[in-house]
Structure formats: structure tokens, C-alpha cells
Design a protein that fits this description.
The chain is of the alpha/beta class and 464 residues long. 33% of the residues lie in helices and 22% in strands. The strands form four sheets. The chain has a seven-stranded mixed β-sheet with strand order 6-5-4-3-2-1-21. Strands 7-8-9-10-19-20 form a six-stranded mixed β-sheet, covered by helices on one side. The protein has a six-stranded parallel β-sheet with strand order 13-12-14-11-15-18, sandwiched between helices. The longest helix has 28 residues. It is globular, with a radius of gyration of 22 Å.
């Protein structure tokens, strides 16, 4: 079998790994690149494979950097099966149509504001029909129950503890030398985080793909993280401002609602805050999360059973554009959770446009920000940012709360990999910026042989 790195090699986004063998062809993930114009150009580039010749896609989870090019794949002729967990299938039913809607609306805006100039992104990357076509190809599977996408391959999903429905992949296949196992980590979660269960562990891998988003750093403890979040919110309260939290609609928004409920119950933040979830997709994702009660960790199940629903009744879930616009007329006392988590699309950009110029307000960054994304520029201290064609002053306070990441830090990744009973024949470090991946490669390589950072476009032989 051959493996080609088509994305998330030397960078975080665009996860896509192309498998070829005597049994046919398939992908592990088909993700969107994120973070500025270069990412958009990559998304629009031709696939390095023929979508019509693929037999299947094995999807690790619903985040768009792992799933966001599935509609493009379907639009270009893919008619195979897309395998995912049960919860991932439900989430994709929200995420992919929403992504298509954003693509179409952004294209309309570009055409309107750039008349007479040819632009490579003047048309939508894909439309709603392509998203619906991709959804028809979904084949949901249960955790820990093997399935065969084609004859000669057996796949098992294990809980990755990253977001609802996330999984790492154990893929077994036969070679002349015997049975081999390829493990693809997907995104590994940080233990002891709210909502989802802690990650399961692999026990055997002949070949390993392991993410490295935070391969060069450690997260702060949850206690320290909650202290930082409490301080950011309370400082803003003293100044009479609003708190804007860019949050991924799937995963981070639900985490934040849980933690805001916890801090309110404990009396650490004022219970008079008005909390808004301004993302129809996040609202639907929250409903899906509650529906998959059995996939939640024990603490979350207990919290929801006792007081969680009471807190949720105090949260304003906005739907219409008019409701969203009305939030920005609130002079203070609002906590606004809105997508996208990297600030590059969706309603969050409108909130930043109105809230950033005012010193009494705060923006609390609670998730990873890819290179060149608007969120990354805010984290890096930009004094001005461009929104809807205009320069906007950054006067609001910017707080970065790194300990809330749903990605495992260096220690957690090493612990996860350390559960393998024997070192893999080969290990490739993926899904990380250059410095993080190189640092993690060096650390893992001090314990194992044949550890390398994956190179975009490189092909490896997994037939030994």
C-alpha cells in the first residue's frame, strides 16, 4: 500500500491522506485549508488524485479542516462511501450546508465589491447542492466495531476525545509479509476537558500518523485556565464592556457554555451577564451534542442532569440576521459566542467590526488560530485589521486562553503514543506548523526509530 500526504503536512489545516493498493484507492480525511488567500488558492487547486477513481473516504471527525472539501470531492465526481462515526454524521449535516452557504455568500460579496476585476475566488468553492451530494454518501459507524470499506481492508474507529464524534483510525490490511496496521490519530484530545470523554489509546501500529498541533508546548492546567477566563470576563465587567469569544461552532462553543455555566454556578462571574450564541450552526451543534448523551463524559452527564439545562435556558440562541445585528447595539454586559473560531468567516467578523474599536470591550481567543487567519493577527498584536474592506482599529483588550484547546499538548501526545506496545516501523508527524512538528519529531525520535515530519506531496510505501 502507498500513502501520499495531500494536506496537513508542514501545516495544521487541510488534512488529507491518499491511500493506494491492490484493493483500490481511498482517503483518510478530505479537509479544507484555512488561513488567508493562500489557503483559498490551495482549496481551489485540482486534487492530486481523480475523485472518480476513489472507492472511499475514512473521516476522523467533523471539523472543516478534516471534512470541508468533501462537497468539492462530490462535485468533481466522487461517488464512493464516506465513513464516519454516528455523531460526526449528524454534525456534518449542519456543517457542510453551512460551509456551502458561507462560500456562496462570500462569493456574492466579492463579485459585488470587485466589479471589473478578475479574481481567482470570484465564484464559490462549492454550493449547497454539492454539500447535499456529499451528505448522501455518508455511512455512519459505531466506535469499536470493525467495518470493511472495500475487500481487503478493515477499519475500526476509537474515540479520540477531541470533539463529539471524533475518532482515530485503525486500518488493517494484508501484505506479503503479513497483517499490517496503520493508525491515523486524527486530532487527539486533551484529557480532562469538558463535554467529551478522554481519548482512548492505540496499542499497536506498524505505521503511525500522529498530529502535532501543540507538539512543542504544554497547556496550562484547567484550574489555571479557568482563573484566566474568569479574570478576562471580570475585567470587562468592571469596564462595562462586552466580551466577544470567537468559537468553533462544533466543540468549542459547547465547551464554553459548560464552563460559563460552571463559573456562574460557583459565583465566580456575575450571573447578570447576557450570554448569546450567535451562530445557527452552533445552536444546532449544541442540540446534537445533547442528543448524543451517551458519548459525553460522566461529569458532563451529571452536570446536565442536575443544572445544565437550567443554565441553557438563560442563553440566547440567535437565528436571524436581525437578531445578530441587534446584539451589537448592546452597550455592555454581553458575552457573545460566535463562529468562525479563527475569525475568517461567518457572523464573528461583524461582531469584531463593531466591538474591536472600543476599549471597554474584550476579545477572548479560546482556540487554535492558523497562520494568516484574522484570529492569529489579533493574537499577534495587530493594531488594525481589515474587515469588509475597511481598516478597523483594535482598541479592545485581547486575551488568549490557550489552556482550553481540544488538542492534546506535547505531554498528552507522548502519553497517547506511549501506549503502543512496540514502536511503529515508521512514524510521520502531521497536522502541525513547522516548528511544532519538528520539535515533536525530535522528542518522539529520541525514543523511536524512523520518525519524520510528513512532507506535502510525498509518497511512502507501507507494504513492508
Amino acid at each position: 500500500m502507498q500513502l501520499t500526504f495531500c494536506g496537513a503536512a508542514g501545516e495544521v489545516t487541510g488534512s488529507c491522506y491518499w491511500l493506494q493498493g491492490a484493493w483500490g484507492q481511498g482517503l483518510i480525511d478530505c479537509g479544507m485549508f484555512q488561513g488567508g488567500m493562500r489557503a483559498d488558492l490551495k482549496n481551489r487547486a485540482p486534487f492530486p488524485f481523480n475523485p472518480r477513481q476513489l472507492d472511499f473516504v475514512i473521516l476522523t471527525h467533523a471539523h472543516l479542516d478534516h471534512s470541508g472539501l468533501l462537497p468539492k470531492l462530490a462535485a468533481e465526481g466522487f461517488r464512493g462511501d464516506i465513513y464516519c462515526t454516528m455523531a460526526t454524521a449528524d454534525l456534518l449535516g449542519v456543517l457542510l450546508p453551512d460551509s456551502a452557504h458561507i462560500q456562496e455568500k462570500d462569493a456574492e460579496w466579492r463579485i459585488k465589491h470587485h466589479r471589473g476585476r478578475m479574481r481567482p475566488n470570484a465564484t464559490a468553492l462549492y454550493d449547497a447542492a454539492a454539500a447535499e451530494q456529499a451528505l448522501k454518501l455518508l455511512r455512519p459507524q459505531h466506535y469499536n466495531q470493525p467495518f470493511s470499506p472495500v475487500e481487503g481492508i478493515q477499519v475500526t474507529y476509537r474515540d479520540a476525545g477531541h470533539i463529539l464524534g471524533s475518532a482515530f483510525v485503525e486500518l488493517q490490511y494484508q501484505t506479503k509479509s503479513g497483517l499490517r496496521t496503520l493508525v491515523a490519530s486524527g486530532d487527539v484530545g486533551q484529557p480532562s476537558r469538558p463535554i467529551v470523554k478522554d481519548p482512548a489509546f492505540p496499542t499497536h501500529a506498524d505505521y503511525l500518523l500522529i498530529e502535532s498541533t501543540y507538539g512543542n508546548r504544554l497547556h496550562k492546567s484547567m484550574a489555571e485556565t479557568l482563573d484566566e477566563l474568569t479574570e478576562a470576563i471580570n475585567i470587562t465587567r468592571r469596564y462595562g464592556g462586552n466580551v466577544v469569544i470567537p468559537a468553533f461552532a462544533v466543540g468549542r462553543t459547547q465547551d464554553m457554555l459548560y464552563l460559563l455555566g460552571q463559573l456562574t454556578e460557583e459565583g465566580r462571574i456575575d450571573d447578570e451577564w447576557q450570554i448569546y450564541v450567535d451562530s445557527p450552526m452552533a445552536t444546532k451543534a449544541t442540540d446534537i451534542t445533547l442528543h448524543h448523551f451517551e458519548d459525553l463524559d460522566t461529569e458532563t452527564q451529571l452536570a446536565l442532569s442536575h443544572n445544565g439545562h437550567r443554565f441553557l435556558k438563560r442563553v440566547h440562541f440567535t437565528e436571524t440576521v436581525e437578531d445578530s445585528m441587534a446584539i451589537n447595539k448592546i452597550p455592555g454586559g454581553a458575552i457573545i459566542l460566535s463562529a468562525s473560531g479563527m475569525c475568517d468567516a461567518g457572523r464573528i467578523r461583524h461582531h469584531l467590526r463593531w466591538q474591536l474599536p472600543h476599549r471597554k470591550n474584550s476579545v477572548v481567543i479560546v482556540g487554535f488560530q492558523a497562520m494568516a487567519s484574522l484570529g492569529r493577527r489579533l493574537v499577534d498584536g495587530a493594531k488594525k485589521v481589515r474587515l469588509f474592506g475597511r481598516e478597523v482599529e483594535v482598541a479592545a483588550r485581547i486575551f488568549t486562553i490557550g489552556g482550553l484547546s481540544a488538542h492534546a499538548d506535547q505531554a498528552a501526545l507522548m502519553n497517547w503514543a506511549g501506549h503502543l506496545q512496540t514502536p511503529p516501523r515508521n512514524t510521520w508527524v502531521v497536522h502541525g506548523e513547522a516548528q511544532a512538528s519538528a520539535s515533536f519529531r525530535d522528542l518522539l525520535g529520541s525514543k523511536w526509530l524512523n520518525v519524520a515530519v510528513a512532507e506535502a506531496g510525498a509518497t511512502c510505501d507501507l507494504s513492508d
